[in-house]
Amino acid sequence: MLAINVEELNEVSVIECKGRIVRSESVFKLRDFVQAQEPSSLIALDLSEVEAISGGGLGMLAFLERWTRERGIKLKLFCPSRPVLQGLVHNRSILNFDITGFHEMMHILGRADSRYSTAAA
Q1: Among 18, 67, 68, 70, who pairs with 3 as Cys (CB 3.0-4.6 Å)?
Q2: Are strands 2-9 and 12-21 parallel, antiparallel or unpaired?
Q3: Dihedrals phi, psi of 16, to nearest 5 degrees
Q4: CATH number of the domain located at residue range(s) 2-115 in this protein
């Protein structure tokens, strides 16, 4: 099961994913949430709490990377969990993604919303 929470901060959307991206239902749920953020200039996928990801989930990440790029939207993978990183490495697609850590993400969020500015310092 995949739980998704979205936080919109001006033109930045943070999509927090928790659980497993292994069945068609969760893969398409992720797609629908990302595509619903189209007005955003940056979409950050928080994958830090993803316990497992299947080939279909990895394929959807590749699709979403291409989909956002074609629309001029930046897509960042925020702190991907070990299973996600291992899947990206195994599929030789890790270089296609902009992966960001905690400090860079706090800097981005600090620019988007003043509530995060002290965390970015």
Answers
A1: 18
A2: antiparallel
A3: -90, 125
A4: 3.30.750.24
